């Protein structure tokens, strides 16, 4: 009998994160497929682990232990884990890409370039969404990505056979997301405040103050509590700007809720406009609020979309089914020829990260200097008005000299 394939998934930490949750869901099920999966922490963490279901079934190591091990396959799971993954001894290395990760950073942020560079490394790619595979293959025609869609915990998100009708009462809206700029939570709440029809808004987010217009704030929540909340919801409102294949609307589908979502990457994996949900544009608070008002008024449409959501949910695979696909993908990577000069790749990633950190210090110092010069800029703009232009010429020359000296 062949020994099990030894696979290490390298994660940044075990804090609450949709991406880490996906890794844990796959890894905990691989033993039944002859794969011994482990989690390796790329960095030390001060906070306790989030209570991911099944996490206790998996060995978890730090880099100091993993560096002494020999693996059949090491899988990076986030751009910052690529360097640590390449440091580990393994017959093969791979990259599990759950989004184009440079998009999580705004233009000009130092980490944006480093994240993008990792996608160009010649690592075999496993991904969770068709749009990611198609994009990476278009950028690198020689690359063939392995697609492993996310599953659903069917025992947790177990909903009704038919959605109970909601003939009256306020539209029950659930908004979910962190404070990250790309999650679109402020925009979602602004759209609910602009509604004309009665609504009840629940916000699932990290702890903090309850924003205006929110009736209930909870979170973060374990999966079973989330399932209970979805069952009490009519619509999940999600206006993200960046996603891989976002889970909350799909989870809510299983409990008989529909969704109103932005046309973010990944929504096309399961959201069909007018069939199981509504798709709206970004930065259109009024259009989004009108879509919500429509569902609040037209309960026949709301019921039909909830029916469609349940139909989509019934056809979606479970985590157990998708673990079979992940096991096949890992074995396929293990059969491929090994990478050449992975030590060079690891050094390159380390050098890029060092450069990014140095650049971040430069940006911080630049921003500090710009803050000092803002009062000067305000005075200069005032001096450019016709009434003050002539009188202020001597002062303007003095301030221009101050700016030049500060920029040296």
Automatic annotation (TrEMBL):
Molecular function GO labels: glycosyltransferase activity
Q: Which Gene3D superfamilies match?
A: 3.40.50.11090, Glycogen Phosphorylase B
- CDD domains attached here? GT4_PimA-like
Q: Taking every annotated instance into account, which residue ranges of this chain make up the domain Glycosyl transferase family?
A: 219-306
**Protein name, UniProt field:** Glycosyltransferase family 4 protein
Q: Which organism is it from?
A: Solirubrobacter ginsenosidimutans
């Amino acid at each position: 009998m062949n020994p099990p394939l030894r696979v290490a998934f390298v994660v940044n930490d075990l804090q609450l994160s949709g991406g880490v949750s996906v890794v844990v869901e796959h890894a905990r099920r691989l033993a039944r497929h002859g794969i011994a999966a482990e989690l390796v922490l790329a960095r030390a963490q001060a906070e306790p682990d989030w209570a991911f279901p099944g996490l206790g079934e998996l060995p978890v190591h730090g880099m100091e232990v993993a560096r002494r091990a020999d693996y059949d396959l090491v899988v990076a799971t986030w751009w910052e884990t690529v360097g640590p993954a390449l440091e580990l001894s393994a017959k093969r290395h791979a990259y599990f890409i759950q989004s184009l990760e440079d998009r999580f950073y705004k233009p000009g942020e130092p980490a944006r370039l480093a994240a993008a560079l990792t996608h160009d490394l010649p690592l075999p790619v496993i991904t969770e969404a068709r749009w990611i595979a198609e994009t990476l293959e278009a950028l690198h025609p020689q690359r063939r990505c392995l697609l492993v869609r996310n599953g659903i915990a069917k025992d947790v998100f177990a909903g009704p056979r038919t959605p109970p009708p909601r003939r009256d009462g306020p539209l029950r809206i659930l908004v979910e997301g962190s404070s990250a700029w790309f999650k679109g939570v402020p925009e979602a709440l602004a759209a609910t405040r602009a509604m004309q029809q009665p609504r009840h808004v629940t916000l699932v987010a990290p702890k903090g103050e309850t924003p205006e217009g929110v009736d209930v704030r909870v979170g973060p929540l374990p999966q079973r509590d989330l399932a209970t909340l979805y069952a009490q919801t009519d619509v999940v409102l999600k206006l993200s700007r960046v996603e891989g294949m976002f889970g909350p609307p799909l989870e809510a589908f299983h409990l008989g809720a529909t969704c109103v979502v932005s046309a973010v990457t990944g929504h096309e994996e399961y959201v069909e406009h007018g069939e199981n949900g509504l798709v709206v544009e970004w930065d259109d608070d009024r259009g989004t609020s009108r879509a919500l008002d429509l569902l609040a008024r037209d309960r026949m449409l709301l019921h039909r979309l909830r029916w469609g959501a349940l139909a989509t949910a019934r056809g979606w695979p479970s985590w157990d089914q998708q673990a079979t696909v992940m096991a096949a993908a890992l074995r396929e990577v293990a059969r491929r020829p090994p990478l050449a000069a992975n030590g060079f790749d690891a050094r390159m990633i380390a050098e890029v990260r060092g450069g990014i950190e140095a650049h971040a210090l430069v940006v911080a110092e630049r921003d500090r200097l710009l803050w000092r010069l803002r009062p000067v800029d305000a005075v200069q703009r005032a001096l450019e008005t016709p009434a003050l232009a002539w009188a202020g010429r001597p002062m303007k020359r003095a301030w221009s000299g101050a700016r030049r000296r500060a920029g040296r």
